[in-house]
Write a structure and sequence with these properties.
Elements lengths: L9 E4 L5 H4 L2 H12 L2 E2 L11 H10 L3 E6 L3 H7 L7 H12 L3 E6 L23 E3 L5 H15 L14 E2 L5 E4 L6 E4 L5 H9 L12 E2 L2 E2 L11 H15 L2 E3 L3 H8 L11 H4 L52 E2 L2 E2 L6 E7 L7 E4 L25 E3 L3 E4 L1 H13 L4 E7 L6 E4 H17 L5 E12 L10 E9 L7 H4 L17 H11 L3 E7 L3 E9 L3 H10 L14 E2 L3 E3 L3
Parallel strand pairs: 1-2, 1-3, 3-4, 4-5, 14-24, 18-20
Antiparallel strand pairs: 6-7, 7-8, 8-25, 9-10, 11-25, 12-13, 14-15, 15-16, 17-19, 20-21, 21-23, 22-23
Helix pairs in contact: 2-8, 3-5, 11-12, 12-14
């Protein structure tokens, strides 16, 4: 009989200025927490006046093993700090070696083991230690799984859980699980995590964010058997860790590839590619087959019952908000709701360098309005592909506009002219999405000026009053203007610029500006266009100013490393996977 993993306490030592290591350490930390229940990194709470050496030594002393994460810049950085007695990384590794705590060097990517010449005398022992390679790319999951397995193997197991023999198997919360064919001993919950399941977790964690509780949308309430919403990736991971401790089993979120296998397309993708590399590669493939529109009863989507402008007119389901789990007959391998109802968080990040985690499956009130030109328009509907979570943060637009202007005009004779108001107000945005909006507009402007010329980019503070002509609520906004001196848009076409599939370009799709409008409106903003033929075009964007509390939160979060998303939405939920102990 197999046993559950011992609660092995791992301490991750890394340098924040060793960029390749700092970019991957959060993912390693997440995997360790999911498997062993906890891990340690970033000793940031050193009290004023405390002996920092002692604090670090005590923190390392609470660990069973220290993992030294070494990237390509690690050796040079430690060589530069050989004589620095306050070097945290050096103190951490010295402390582990002195205490007899095993130290495992993790070499990231193509990083070589530091030489004796690189190391201070107190760390010479590192040269003799067996190191592990961790690929930050397609082999990441395989390498970390091997590492975790070896840590578990060599540092013991304890508690023996009951072998899972029944299929389906029901856990202590009444969540049913089935084995997924094609996955080695991995079970999926038959349905998405319910309100009643999450309530049991929340009862034992009173400090948990409570926006999930008693949630209703336009008068439609969540019942105990509805999928929980307003749950971030962090919340979902914490739930799995709590349930693992509670039952002595290993619960976690599914990986992106496991989700594909469960829904029946695992054999049609490369499991070692990142979600970004796989995104949108399958055309005309849906959970119900290849027909469009969806067959009635296929799932809870945005159909004719919805007030959304992006809906499937010929499809109807009786749920304007979430549906009780398992309400629809369609299933894959005995698993319900793998399309629609709520987006499901996955364990993986979208790409190696991304801070965003993958979601799969689509939700009750939206469909995938993708820019993927490899897919037919119909396949741009449900996330049978993948979606990236929206990561909101408080920023000042000055740097984003300057950088995007520089990138968008490179290789052209277009000269960006920036006029940014001093002390510009902060806004709360998704940097990736707003950069896409600005870049799309600027590239269009460059294309409208094939012989070059100036592009004026401005940003200023604006207060909108009652009765304004923009249709905006009263409040403070940042007003962005992007103006080219190109060919302009004919008067009869100006009003169609934001219509899906409208374009004046021979090879255009008409998706870009429609998506820009959708993104701006998701940010509670407004986008408009003014154009005169042979004079030029100007796009005007209003973005609401961040509240004082969110500005403070943004300032505080900017000094912490990002190891996961805190984004919540009434579109987002999750489902648990379970590693079968037998």
């Amino acid at each position: 009989m197999s046993a559950s993993p011992r609660n092995l306490k791992c301490f991750l030592s890394y340098r924040r200025d060793d960029r390749i290591a700092a970019g991957i350490v959060g993912r390693i930390y997440d995997r360790l927490c999911q498997h062993f229940g906890e891990a340690f990194m970033d000793v940031d709470d050193i009290p004023p006046g405390a002996n920092f050496r002692q604090v670090l030594d005590e923190a390392v002393g609470r660990a069973d093993i220290l993992l030294a994460v070494i990237g390509t810049e690690w050796a040079e950085l430690i060589r530069q700090r050989k004589s620095d007695p306050r070097d945290f990384v050096r103190i951490e590794i010295q402390s582990a070696l002195k205490r007899g705590i095993p130290v495992v060097p993790l070499l990231i990517g193509n990083t070589a083991m530091p030489s004796i010449a690189d190391l201070p005398d107190s760390l010479f022992e590192l040269q003799d230690l067996n190191a592990y390679k961790v690929d930050p790319g397609r082999d990441f999951n395989a390498h970390v799984s091997r590492l975790v397995g070896d840590l578990e193997k060599h540092y013991g197991r304890t508690k023996e859980p009951a072998l899972i023999k029944a299929d389906p198997f029901a856990n202590s919360l009444g969540m049913p699980f089935v084995l997924v064919p094609g996955l080695d001993g991995v079970l999926f919950s038959i349905w998405q995590t319910r309100v009643q399941d999450y309530a049991a977790f929340a009862k034992e964690n009173p400090k948990l964010d409570m926006t999930w509780k008693d949630y209703e949308y336009k008068g439609h309430k969540q019942g105990p058997d509805h999928p929980v919403v307003n749950v971030s990736h962090e919340d979902a991971t914490a739930f799995c860790q709590w349930l693992s401790h509670k039952e002595g089993r290993t619960y976690r979120l599914p990986t992106d590839h496991e989700w594909s296998v469960a829904v029946g397309i695992g054999g049609r993708e490369d499991p070692w590619q990142t979600p970004k590399e796989k995104d949108g590669k399958l055309a005309n493939v849906f959970p119900w087959g290849s027909a469009w529109p969806p067959l009635q009863g296929s799932g809870n989507f945005s159909g004719s019952e919805s007030a959304s402008p992006y809906k499937i007119e010929s499809y109807n389901d009786p749920f304007p908000f979430t549906a009780p789990v398992g309400s629809f007959k369609l299933e894959h391998n005995g698993i319900k709701d793998l399309s629609g109802n709520v987006w499901e968080w996955c364990e993986d990040k979208y790409d190696v360098s991304s801070a965003a985690f993958v979601v799969r499956g689509g939700a009750w009130g939206n469909f995938n309005f993708s820019l993927d030109t490899n897919a037919e328009p119909a396949t741009q509907m449900l996330e049978f592909t993948r979606g990236m979570e929206s990561k909101m943060r408080v920023v000042n637009l000055h740097e984003l506009l300057m950088k995007t202007a520089r990138e968008s005009t490179v290789g052209n004779n277009v000269k960006p002219e920036l006029s940014i108001q001093a002390e510009l107000w902060d806004v709360e945005i998704d940097l990736v999405q707003l950069r896409q909006v600005f870049q799309n507009i600027m590239i269009n402007g460059c294309q409208a000026m094939p012989n070059g010329g100036p592009m004026h980019i401005s940003a200023r503070n604006a207060t909108v009053t009652q009765g304004n002509t923009f249709g905006l609520p009263v409040g403070n906004f940042v007003l962005v203007g992007i103006r080219d001196r190109g060919c302009g848009i004919p008067p009869e076409s100006v009003g169609k610029v934001f219509d899906p599939y409208f374009t004046t370009k021979i090879d255009g799709t008409g998706i870009g500006m429609a998506l820009c409008k959708q993104i701006v409106e998701r940010h509670r903003g407004k986008i408009m266009v003014e154009s005169v033929v042979n004079v030029g075009t100007e796009f005007i964007i209003f973005l609401p100013v961040a509240t004082v509390s969110r500005v403070l939160d943004g300032l505080l979060s900017s000094i912490r490393d990002c190891r996961g998303s805190a984004y919540r939405s009434n579109y987002y939920g999750f489902r648990c996977a379970l590693a079968n102990a037998g």
